[in-house]
Hints:
single chain; three-stranded parallel beta sheet; globular
Amino acid sequence: MMIDDLTYVKETSSIWIDAVKRVGCRAIIQLPVADLSFLDAGDQIFKVSRAPYKTVFPRCAMVVHHGGAGTTQSSLIAGRPTVVVAHMADQFFWGSELQRLGVSGKTLMRKGLTSGRLAEAIQNVLADTNMVDKAEALGHQLETEDGVTVAIALIEQAIGARLTSRECKTND
């Protein structure tokens, strides 16, 4: 979820590529443009316009993402620690929630981000075995949850409490 501006996408991808080279790891970079020929990523980076997170994330050591609700959920289900680089909106909230859960470092802001700061954040997450363990445990916990059933029960409980409260007032 990036701003739909090729200059912005190029600037952001340049930061990502330089950070990956600094860390010396391999990476998959997903960008919201169909033609990625402008991106000189080198052999250690696979570039893609779309990727199925359910398939990709579990195979990664960690995930760098924007902190959107869906991507956050996918990283949690995959049981992978993250680095959140928030661009806008609720991404800052989800980044802070991941940090609170102990599965991410401090949320980075895209505005003013440098490849050095991103590389340092990636290295910190990769080196933090406690964070990796917490992410894996949380991923296993989420696998066993039935969120729809829990949501329905909570909604019914809330509605039932309101009905009971209204019934008491009418009976008085």
